[in-house]
Amino acid sequence: MALHPVVAAVTSRIRARSAASRTAYLKKIDAAHLAGTARGRLGCTNLAHAFAASDAGDKQQLRAGRWPNIGIVSAYNDMLSAHQPLERFPAIIKQAAREAFAVAQFAGGVPAMCDGVTQGEPGMELSLFSRDVIAMSTAIALSHNTFDAALMLGVCDKIVPGLLIGALSFGHLPVIFVPGGPMPSGISNDDKAKTRQLFAQGKVGREALLESEAQSYHAPGTCTFYGTANSNQMLMEIMGLHLPGAAFVNPNTPLRDALTAAAGKRVAAITALGDARLPLAEVIDERAIVNGIVGLHATGGSTNHTIHLIAMARAAGIVIDWDDFSDLSAVVPLLARIYPNGKADVNHFHAAGGMGFLIRELLAAGLLHGDVQTVAGRGLDAYAEAPFLDPDGALAWRPAPAASLDESVLRPASHPFSADGGLRRLTGNLGRAVIKVSAVKPEHRIVEAPAQVFDSQEAMLAAFKRGELKRDFVAVVRFQGPRANGMPELHKLTPALGVLQDEGFHVALVTDGRMSGASGKVPAAIHVSPECLAGGELARVRDGDVIRLDAEQGLLQALVPEAEWLARQPAEADLSANDSGCGRELFATARSQVSNAEHGAMIVGDAVAGVRSGFDLQIR
């Protein structure tokens, strides 16, 4: 199938827009490759340090320099359910590496915080910046320059983007991402959401809510709803950085362990010491980034990736923006219904045919670049297959199911849930924003109502509890951007707004902050840029101003006479309470230096800054 003309056009404009910065990035990566791994030219003291703790066999091979050395970078900790299974992975990888005539060393750990634990708490204000800390930690782990390849072990929200941003600074090395897999299914997502709304209404108590949540988040593995963590796994697969079919295999199973071992063997085979070198910089190019955006739309993935995917692309010298997301969304059909865009979870999606079925459908429709480099050593057609264990227990792959095994969860491109991906860019006198409408019913996609302005999510929730919001209104929650307070997710607003919508009121949210990757049925214009603290127009809104949010036409407008609007002084907020406590004082520099949301909200790793300044100024 020929490539869809819109996919081709968006890719071409990204390539043209990125020409200078991508060339500069590749020049840097080529220089690193030509310099070679330092192990063979390290001083004797340096080299002795590098293998001092290795066992006798690995020490001999590292000393001789004939076997590749694989660096393992892991986000393991045993508080995050998604990352607890990673505890076992290094031992599996080290054994597999030896079988492939390679050595694997644990190069370093990176921080891994759980947005589910910090949601609505002060620690959430560190969450976005943790991505860049993870990128820097990845660079530190690989900075010893004794590695010929690397494996990235991580799953959740900021962790996979941070690992990739850090790894791209070492783009001359082969890199494979090794996922942990989702936990088994717990209670239904409908039941979980219902209990949350009942709690928000005061109809059930804390013990009932805790019991519901504990039945949902109940075992090792990734949370099963389709938020940012599982969107990460989809992205790594469709961008060719996983082994095929690795994303959604449950942890602590023979198949998961076999895939983990295979990743160790495969990365050893594609180093510069062999004849099949495949560096990360060749896998992540403009086509892979476009494939990632297409996958995001086709699955109804997390809105957080309208920030993270931009940051990952910029780390490779590639410039994308929200126009690219919106234009691709208009032609990419929604093929999956996974909570919050449906009742199913990722285990149901995987059982229905999963990534293999999805990728084959998108390839056949001309919506993906099939001629990309992937860590599998073939084009993206290799990812239209599913892994399994043969009767002897050996890992093998076979074609994904020819038809969906459950069309309530996963559909062919000829019969999608909707004709578009449901992620749209909004523009108007309030700035630029994005909205996800794949879970928003058509009758709720246009809201025109008076503004009710809040400078924190706590203030809005307090008004809800006092019964002051039982009417049509647009909640304007401002001073929530990265410069203001680190751009925490505002997921705690969802149950309250959902209750009001269910009661028949026309409600919407407009914010320069983020919503969770689980944003759902309430229309939410998020990531409004520029943010208030960077001169954004949202700071001019006053209570009672009529706001029009039109997701169909892509409009976000304060219906205020222009002369009055321009004469207003922007509001100021007292953010002193966000400056310290729970470690926030350590991130003052990050808040002062961070770029805007459409630039990826970055503080490090930007291979574009200073190279494409004309474009950057254009979208500020």
**Discrete helix count:** 24
* Main sheet specs: 8 strands, mixed
Strand order of the largest sheet: 7-8-12-11-10-9-13-14
**Secondary-structure class:** alpha/beta
Distance between the termini: 38 Å
Low-pLDDT residue intervals, each spanning 5 or more residues = 612-620
Overall shape: globular
Tell me what portion of residues adopts beta-strand conformation.
5-15%
Radius of gyration: 24 Å
| Number of strand elements | 14
Q: Estimate nothing, just give the exact number of structural domains.
A: 3
Mean pLDDT across residues? 93
Helix content: 25-40%
Assembly state of the chains shown: single chain
Concise description?
With 620 residues, the protein is an alpha/beta fold.
Q: Could you please describe the fold and organization of this structure?
A:
- The chain is of the alpha/beta class.
- The protein has helices spanning 5-17, 19-35, 44-51, 56-64, 89-99, 115-118, 127-142, 159-168, 189-200, 206-216, 228-238, 254-269, 280-283, 286-299, 305-315, 322-329, 346-352, 354-364, 457-465, 482-485, 493-502, 562-567, 588-593, 613-619; strands at residues 69-74, 103-109, 149-153, 175-178, 385-389, 395-399, 423-428, 431-436, 446-454, 473-477, 507-511, 524-529, 546-550, 555-558.
- The chain has 24 helices and 14 strands.
- Strands 7-8-12-11-10-9-13-14 form an eight-stranded mixed beta sheet.
- The chain folds into three domains: 5-35 and 67-184 and 219-399, no CATH class; 185-218, no CATH class; 423-578, IlvD/EDD C-terminal domain-like (Glucose Oxidase, domain 1).
- α9 (189-200) packs across α21 (493-502) and α11 packs across α14 (286-299).
- It is globular and about 75 Å long.
- The model is unreliable at 612-620 (pLDDT under 50).
- A hairpin with a 5-residue loop joins β5 and β6 (395-399).
